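Input/output pair, single chain:
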Amino acid sequence: MKFNIYLTLILAFIFLSCQKKQSNEVPIKEERKTIKIETDKGILLLELYNETPLHRDNFIKLTEAGLYDSLLFHRVIESFMIQGGDPDSKYAQSGVVLGNGGLDYKIDAEFHPELFHKKGALAAARDGNLKRASSATQFYIVQGKIFNDSLLERAEVRINNWLAQHAFKNDPANKQLLDSLEKALVEQNDERYNFYNDRIVKMSETYHNFDKYSIPEKQREVYKTIGGAPHLDQNYTVFGEVVEGFDVIDSIASSKTDSLDRPIIDVRILSVRVLE
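Output:
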């Protein structure tokens, strides 16, 4: 009988010791993948966020397939961002309109309050789809500018206007209006499209069935010191950041451009590689 009691006590002690050991273990943080983008203006090193696995894995897949090699930064706006990833830009002649190319799928949006559009942020371009899903291939890197409190207040207004429009468009009560907008788009009827789009924008100004967003204080400090493009927060997926090569961003962003923001002298991505 005593033996059974001792055995039970020993087993209980071992069990409790294991539980204590497990509770003290610190979870291993997954290392970020590093991406090297070589351009004819210099080299950018970026880290991809593990918090956005859909975008991370897609970018790695396309990188390993060589999709980004020899593409252009086809849209450049100084003090804002540099955009690339259009497969049509690889052999594009001077003056050709770019920005509509890609693959036949989208990436579901991955918004996180802690991932924001500071200088050097890597984010996914997208069209006006209702789910705010990202382009499979096109991305942009933020150059941005320094903001003060007044400009940040304006940015918050812009963020919430977009959030209101998104919520309004996805409200089942407004389906008929959205169907009319979609029909005008399919028919390429610009006049009807603008009419319905203007109505949606106007009606969404008084729409309040959504959670308003405020820029967190820590992020406000970054925007006031390092800079960025805060008005895009929570509307476009941020999935990485530049860790080296900020001077390269500035160099590309200073390129002279045409009326459609395409650099007059091509700025090419020579190669993109995943570093081990």
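Residues 7-11 have pLDDT under 50 and may be disordered. The two ends are 60 Å apart (CA to CA).
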